[in-house]
Amino acid sequence: MECIFCKIVAGELPSKKIYEDEDTLAFMDINPANPGHALVIPKKHYENIFDIDEQTLKQIISVTKKVAERINEKLKPEGLNILQNNGKRAGQLVNHIHVHIIPRFADDKVLFTYQKADVDDFDRIQKEITVETPEEEPFEEEKKEEPRKETISRKWRKDF
Ligand code: 5GP
Ligand code: ZN
Question: How many Å apart are CA 69 and CA 81, to the nearest integer?
Fold first, then answer.
């Protein structure tokens, strides 16, 4: 077994665990971007977002929320980033899917930057990546929710 996170799950490598259930594990990142930087992983090996099944993904997201809430309550950061890298180009170094929970503090050294790219073919790209709405009945809870509001802010809309 080559994967370091599989070794952590198997107890062959030590880790500072902060949550564990049958399918999911959360532990402290060995090289934290900030104090409290944690990782959430499925115990079973999946490489990335494309590889993992939806049920397991939901489980790790649900644990991410639990752990994020705990970090928020106890460490009282001023913000918190949830990050999940897919592929080398996106900064994925460990090929066992994991969600980063990174508490943020004033004047910390964490940098996530992106610059506005020149995109001429917005319309073509929009068509290409538009996902069809599934036709199944919504869950009961979703039916009761307010209709979703427009999510693109005015600031961005003027660019379209
Ligand atoms: P990635 O760049 O793949 O999204 O993030 C991998 C993360 O795993 C890094 O933040 C790195 O510090 C962390 N990491 C790598 N090896 C170990 C390890 O053996 N133990 C723990 N706890 N974290 C690790
Ligand atoms: Zn693994």
Answer: 12
C-alpha 46 to ligand 1 mean position (Å)? 15
Q: Among the residues of 76-137, which ranges form H helices?
A: 122-129
Binding site membership of 48 for ligand 1 (Cβ less than 6 Å): no
CA distance 98 to 26: 9
Task: Report the alpha-carbon distance of residue 144 to residue 156 in Å, rounded.
Answer: 30
How do residues 101-157 score in pLDDT, each as one tens digit?
A: 999 999 999 998 889 999 999 999 999 999 999 887 766 666 666 655 555 544 445
Please work out whether the CB of residue 15 comes within 6 Å of at least one atom of ligand 1: yes
- Show which residues are catalytic: 98
User: How buried is residue 32: exposed, middle or buried, by Cβ count under 10 Å (0-12/13-18/19+)?
Assistant: middle
Encoded amino acid at 122, one letter: F
Q: Ligand 2 centroid vs 42 CA: distance in angstroms?
A: 9
Within the chain, residue ranges assigned H as helices are 4-10, 54-75, 122-129, 140-144, 154-157
Instruction: Return the residue whose CA atom lies nearest to atom 15 of ligand 1.
Output: 30
pTM for this one? 0.86
What structural domains does the chain harbor?
A: 4-104 (3.30.428.10), 122-157 (no CATH)
